[in-house]
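so ive been stuck on this for like two days lol. basically i have the seq below and the ligand is zinc ion, smiles is in there too. i just want the complex predicted, nothing fancy, no docking runs or whatever. if the output looks off dont worry ill sanity check it later, just need somthing to start from for the group meeting slides
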Amino acid sequence: MSGIWPDDIRCVALITFDVDGITSWLNRNPDFINYPSLLSMAEYGPSVATPRILDMLDAQGIPGSFYIPGYVAETHPDLVREIAGRGHEVAHHGYIHEPPATMSPEKEEEVLIKGIGILGDLTGVAPVGYRSPSWELSPVSLDLLAKHNFHYDSSLMGDDAPYLVQGGDPPRDLVELPIHWLLDDAPHFAYAPSANRLGPMRNPDEVFESWAAEFRGIYRYGRCYNLTMHPQYIGRPGRLLMLERLIEYIKTFPGVRFMRAVDVADMWENGA
Ligand SMILES: [Zn+2]
C-alpha cells in the first residue's frame, strides 16, 4: 500500500448521476408544473438518457452510483429496479429535491424517511448513501443521517479524498465523499431560459479538458475523483460521447479503480 488507498490502488473514480428528472425544477418553483416544455427537457433524464447511460456503463464495464429523488423513483419504478439489478448503487436524494437547508428539522426527517421507504421497497434494501439536493445540508443533516443508518454523505467540499464526519446522539462516524462544483455538469451545461438558468452551454470538448485536468491532479496526489452528473444534461448524445471518452482516458492510468460510492465509503470506514 502506498498513499491513502489499500492494495495497488493509486486513486479511485466515482461516476455518479443525480437523476433529478422534473423534481429540481418543481422544487425551485412549483409554477413550473405549467411549463411542459421545461419539464419535458427534465423528463428526458430518466426517460431517455438514463437507459442510455446504463448501456454505456455496461459497455465500459464500470459501476455507477445513482442518487434518485423519491418522486422520480415512484414515477419510474422499473428504472430504479433496472439500475439496482445491473449492480449500480441506488442512493437517497430527497423526495422532490428539497435542499435540507430550506426545511425544518422535522420536515427534513420526514423527507428522509419517505425516501428510504420508497427506494427500499423498490430495491429490497434501504439506501445507505445520501447526497443532498443542491448540495446544501442543514445543521442537523448529519445527525439525521446517523440516526437513520446511513454510511456516508456526499454533499460537502472540505477535501478531495474521503473524510470522517460525525452525527447522531451519541455521535458516530459517517464517511464524507466530497464533491465540487468543478466536477458537476450543471455549471457547464444547465441552460433553461424560462427558469433563468443561463449557463454557458459549453462545448463538450472544453468540459472534457476541465474534467481531465482535474483527474490528472487527483491522480497525481492519489485522491478521490467524484464526478457528479445529471442525465438530463450529460445524457444528450454528444455529451455522453464525451463522458465515454473521459472514462476511456481515465482507464489509461494504471492503478485507478472505478467504484460505487457505497463501496468507497465502506472501504474507508474499514480503515483504508
Ligand atoms: Zn439533484
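The radius of gyration is 18 Å. The chain has eleven helices and eleven strands.
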